[in-house]
Amino acid sequence: MERIHITDVAPRDGLQNQQVPVSTDAKLQLIRLLAAAGVQSVEATSFVSPKAVPQMADAGDLVPRLHAALPQLRTSVLVPNLKGLERAHAAGAQEIAVVLSATETMNRKNINMGLEQATEVSAQTLAEARRLGLRTRAYVAVAFDCPFEGPTALTAVQASCARMLEAGAGEIVVADTIGSAAPGQVRQRLGALAGTVPIERLAVHFHDTRGMGVANAWAALQAGVRRFDASAGGIGGCPFAPGAAGNVATEDLVLMAEQSGFATGISLPGLLEAIDFAQDQLQRPLGGRAITWLRRQRDKALASTS
Ligand code: HMG
Ligand code: MG
User: What is the per-residue pLDDT across 133-188, written as a single tens digit (0 to 9) for each?
Assistant: First the structure.
């Protein structure tokens, strides 16, 4: 079976916008449960301004504890600038992701820089990360639509991807920040971007606002993409992108991929344990489109063994 690679972004994208405070211990436990379910790669946190995103203020404590507890787990952290990189490196991070939006306004709202400055700062941060020997990813956000400027021009997305590759990004993560894309658009846009980014270095990051996250992931699979971001329980959303719902749920993506003949290495019962834990922490029901069916399967399996 062909393998796909999933990065679970629940600890970062999922927790960055929650009303309920989540302790560092609980974040660590969530990541432990994800790893126990077979998740091999997580985006653990972000080194951003604690004034902008107080939920991620404990990044400097979390990362060393995480590396000590789960040394085999591939762990990435989001950094918006050189200061974030410096903090991440001091905490022992081995992989970083920068976030460049393809439009002027989204960059201003998210990281308080225009497109030109955001491009330069992201490029400098990638170059410095490479010098430090870290693995690198570069998000290209609002790659389909911008909540402030409407449809994003393909040429703008191509230019951002090309610049991030040139600056040394190991992986380009094409992000549907507000979850507005549909599968036909995904196929078309990824087909065009494959001319700029080698397909094996292209990842996709879908939000599920309109219920098309899994369909979009399928379109990406058909376009040859094998690297996916997803979030256990479907939690997530950028606090600076109005209308953004959670990421495509990891359990939905795993179910779709495995049933379609791709291996993920992730156990669905294991993921349910992580989701149950996150649900207790966040004190509200979580889960993607398939969660009711998945829980029913688990209950049936439990009943048959008792
Ligand atoms: P700014 O206010 O313009 O920054 O914020 P500044 O350089 O003028 O500095 C202001 C203060 O912040 C200073 O401290 C700096 O030291 C400090 P003060 O002198 O006032 O005490 N500072 C920092 N502190 C900690 N870590 C840092 C850092 N940088 C500066 N890295 C900044 C600019 C980028 C920092 C701010 O706007 C910020 O942190 N934004 C947060 C952005 C964010 O986290 N967004 C959500 C993640 S992106 C996302 O969700 C999309 C994604 O999922 C993909 C998709 O779905 O599209 C990735
Ligand atoms: Mg996101």
Answer: 999 999 999 999 999 999 999 999 999 999 999 999 999 999 999 999 999 999 99
Q: Whose CA is nearest to atom 36 of ligand 1?
A: 111
Q: Which two tokens stand for residue 185?
A: 């658009």
pLDDT tens, position by position, 40-64 = 999 999 999 999 999 999 999 999 9
Cα of 83 vs centre of ligand 2, distance in Å, is: 21
Position in ligand 1 atom list of the atom nearest CA 16: 46
CATH of the domain spanning 5-305:
3.20.20.70
Query: Residue 7: CB within 6 Å of ligand 1?
Result: no
Domain ranges within the chain, ordered by starting residue = 5-305
Regarding the beta carbon of 107 and ligand 1, being less than 6 Å apart is answered no
Residue 231 DSSP label:
B
* pTM of the entire predicted model: 0.98
